[in-house]
Amino acid sequence: MGKYVITGGNRLSGEVVISGAKNGVLPLLAALPLMKEAYIYNVPFLSDVANTIKILESIGVKIKTEGNIIKSCVGELNPVVECGLSCKMRSSVLFLGSLLSACGQAEIAYPGGCALGERPVDLHIWAMKMLGAEVTERDNAILCRAKKLKGADICLPVQSVGVTENIILAAVLAEGITVIKNAAREPEIGNLCDFLNMCGADISGQGTKTIKIKGVKSLCPCSCGIISDRIEAATYMIMAAATGGELFIRNVNTDHMRVISAVLRKCGCIIKEYDKTIYIEAPHRLYSIPYIATGPYPYFPTDVQPQLMALMSMADGQSLMRENIFSGRYRHACELNNMGADIDIRDKQTFVINGVKKLEGTEVKAWDLRGGAALIIAGLCAEGITTIDNREFIERGYESPISKIQNIGGKIIAR
Ligand code: UD1
Fold it and tell me: Model confidence over 25-58: pLDDT tens digits?
């Protein structure tokens, strides 16, 4: 595993251009078996994207990449996603819906992904059954079969992003109407629905808790862009806030950033919004947040919990943070404590953070993608040198982090 070496203490300033969203591109790529050809632009270069392209090629979708553009062309599909590929990322489970829809069957080895505690796939399987699939589980793989999927009313017991997307992918060519109740409302789901609608699908209600999918006979070729990555944007905003800096964050959808901007304003940051740009200026005095809890969109995203924790560990006063989505998203807290933070981990999901005057550079480890981003933020503020092990986790979801951070004055190198 590779490392990042960071020399802390520089104030970040300048501008960062935000890439296409990781959580936007992965479902769109999973949808590619459904249409003969497609053209996707604003694709971020990430290891998760490279891995998804390997899955696509292994199942018979030819992919050409040119800069940030992907062109796809479907050949004869083989509906089996092998373990060596699916175990690398959680979103491989989305091929269940798309392959079932495109071929009437799908076999997927259990998906991997960041270790954030228990991440079951029970609801994905349940949803496929609701649409009429026969599901068996054997040898660490999920096998689904359906001559013809049939639309159904599906009320989700939890607002799951992946399950909402999987149902959409499966229902788009099903017979009849599917209604998802208590659907997740993340903007990346809207990106997927817009793409499918441009290909001739009939989906409405995305962005609300009720999504309606009228099955169509087939989808046609089209082109679609990936929305801006709100989690990457939030990470750079927090980097500016933590280092006493100021940044212009370009290519963002300011609507998607509302909760992040509101929280950072509470910390004392000055935030101005322009068309597709956010300007952030760090405060002289960084205030703590008395209480913050993560939740499904439009609430505070779990994918920004670690970065905000790094910020709060240097704020003035005490913050109470509650992680409501994942049971094991806390290991970054231990690493931040190794750097001198004062975080009391109450039950792996509740954290009492007492702001300290300074963090100190040391050797730490990224245990997952966003936890790794939190350590970069901490390292940029810490006294001395911070070495972050397992940088591959961070590269799963951040495009060109080294050059983007160096361009705004951060001292970071890869080793
Ligand atoms: C997606 C995002 C991830 C983000 C998460 C929550 C992608 C590629 N990943 O992950 O970055 O952190 O949403 O915003 O978009 N659950 C079950 N059974 C299931 C499926 C989910 O119990 O079969 C639970 C999960 O354990 C979790 C909750 O549902 O507690 C929400 O998770 P979910 O929205 O499904 O996360 P992902 O789609 O995996």
Answer: 999 999 999 999 999 999 999 999 999 999 999 9
Q: Is the pLDDT of residue 175 over 90?
A: yes
Nearest CA to ligand 1 atom 12: 303
Is residue 114 part of the annotated active site? The answer reads: yes
List of domains in the chain: 3-18+228-414 (3.65.10.10), 22-225 (3.65.10.10)
Q: For residue 309, how far is its CA from the centre of ligand 1 (angstroms)?
A: 20
Determine contact, residues 89/113, Cβ cutoff 8 Å. Answer: yes
Query: Tens digit of pLDDT for each residue in 79-124?
Result: 999 888 888 788 899 999 999 999 999 999 887 655 666 678 999 9
Amino acid 181: pLDDT: 98
Question: What was the pLDDT predicted at 118?
Answer: 65
123 lines ligand 1 (CB under 6 A): yes
d(CA 13, CA 23): 27
Which residue's CA is the nearest one to ligand 1's atom 9?
23
> Which residue's alpha carbon is nearest to atom 30 within ligand 1?
325
Alpha carbon of 162 to ligand 1 centroid (Å): 6
Q: Would the pLDDT of 236 be above 80? A: yes
Confirm or reject: Cβ of 325 under 6 Å from ligand 1: yes
* 3-state DSSP of 366-394: CCCHHHHHHHHHHHHHCECEEEEECHHHH
Residue nearest atom 1 of ligand 1, based on CA coordinates? 161
Mutate to test the pocket of ligand 1, among 158, 159, 168 (most ligand atoms within 8 A of CB): 158
Alpha-carbon gap, residue 407 to 74, rounded angstroms: 39
Could you say which DSSP state residue 169 is in? H
Q: Taking all residues of the chain, what is their mean pLDDT, rounded to a whole number?
A: 95
For residue 111, give the DSSP letter.
P
